[in-house]
Design a protein that fits this description.
Helix 1 runs antiparallel to helix 2, helix 3 packs parallel to helix 4 and helix 7 crosses helix 8. By secondary structure, the chain is α+β, with helices and mostly antiparallel strands. The chain has ten helices and 13 strands. It is globular. The strands form three sheets. The chain has a nine-stranded mixed sheet with strand order 5-4-6-7-1-8-13-12-11, with helices on both faces. Strands 2-3 form a two-stranded antiparallel ribbon. The protein is 35% helix and 25% strand.
């Protein structure tokens, strides 16, 4: 048995109201029809605000990643975007690593045996794993792994790896750090995929400590019970991206939510087939809020109560979609909720290119 002992989250100081973000992007379009569509998409997003390392759109900011010194729109190269990622990562990764260990009762940095870092929005080497080692003064013999370019579901392979390490070695303690700076890949384009992507993605980091030791008295956490993974091949062309000369070229079709909604009941029957649980036994649903429509389709497809997906909607509203880090924000909200009781079953799920669907069954531990 392995346990999520602690979750920590971190966002950049700068945040933008969704209304302001929509206004800025609509002003950049030359088409009145596109302007109206952008405002409609942003108004229906279910997002109130998003955090970003990009400061270009703050009042009084005269230049930045997307704005030239004369105020004109700039299309930064992939190299310029990645440089912004590296600079922010060198601040955010050490900070969240230190905060995680400072706030994890019963576990110190010296207990960490494995470090898993996760990111799809930037690249550099030596990478974020070494930043964690240095920030916590860990032994150079600590095992390090990096999961890159997997997308919104990548926290699940990381949790799966951590759980397997703990199963093989009862003394193992794994630190997972997810960092996603999606806003650096903002696209100044009028195609529908870019508009949708621009409207939901945001920046954030999250970390989790996984151990074979259960939470101590007074702590909250989760026991990790089961993982499931599947592919909805009919959606293979509806969620994808590649690296262009000016950031990521993203495909994010409106059909993704429909595909997920149509298959979610069958998927959950498969995931729960090896257990004594049915969907009706799950108390909390930690649905990756890739967009409001995804949460809507899961809720309606499984006939859930609004309160069962409240953590997902609140995370979307306050932070937007931070790719792989987002599901840990949702799980933290459930963990800290006073309505979460010891033994409550939790189903966490996220979606990504493929169309990949990752799930995990957890039990709340309230010591």
């Amino acid at each position: 048995m392995s346990y999520i002992r602690h979750i920590e989250t971190l966002v950049p100081e700068v945040s933008y109201p969704q209304t302001l973000a929509g206004e800025v992007l609509s002003e950049r379009s030359a088409s009145d029809k596109t302007k109206r569509y952008i405002k409609k998409v942003y108004a229906a997003s279910g997002i109130e605000k998003r955090h970003s390392i990009v400061t270009d759109f703050l009042p009084g900011c005269e230049t930045g990643l997307f704005v030239e010194s004369d105020g004109s729109v700039k299309e930064p190269t992939t190299g310029e975007r990645n440089a912004a990622y590296v600079a922010a990562a060198k601040e955010m990764v050490p900070e969240i690593a230190r905060r995680t260990m400072d706030h994890c009762p019963g576990i110190s940095s010296w207990d960490i045996t494995h470090v898993i870092t996760v990111s799809c929005t930037g690249f550099f080497n030596p990478g974020p794993d070494l930043l964690v080692i240095d920030a916590l003064d860990l032994s150079p013999k600590v095992e390090r792994y990096h999961l890159g370019f997997m997308g919104c579901y990548a926290a699940f392979p990381a949790l799966k790896m951590a759980s397997q390490f703990c199963a093989l070695d009862e003394s193992a303690t794994v630190l997972i750090v997810c960092l996603e700076l999606c806003s650096i890949h903002l696209q100044n384009k009028d195609d529908l995929d870019s508009i949708v992507a621009n409207s939901v993605f945001a920046d954030g980091a999250a970390a989790a400590v996984v151990s074979s030791r259960p939470p101590e008295a007074g702590e909250r956490g989760f026991s990790i019970e089961h993982f499931g993974c599947n592919l909805a091949r009919e959606g293979i062309d509806d969620m994808a991206w590649d690296i262009g000369d000016h950031g990521f070229n993203i495909v994010l079709s409106k059909y993704v939510a429909r595909i997920i909604g149509a298959g979610i009941k069958g998927l959950m029957d498969e995931v729960l087939s090896g257990s004594d649980l049915s969907p009706d036994d799950i108390v909390h649903w930690a649905v990756h809020p890739g967009g409001r429509a995804i949460v809507d389709k899961v809720e309606s497809g499984l006939e859930l109560q609004a309160d069962q997906v409240r953590a997902s909607r609140e995370t979307l509203s306050s932070f937007g979609n931070m790719s792989s880090a987002t599901i840990l924000f949702v799980l933290l909200a459930i963990m800290n909720d006073e309505k979460t009781n010891d033994g409550d079953s939790v189903c966490a799920m996220a979606f990504g290119p493929g169309l990949t669907i990752e799930t995990s069954i957890l039990n709340a531990v309230v010591s």
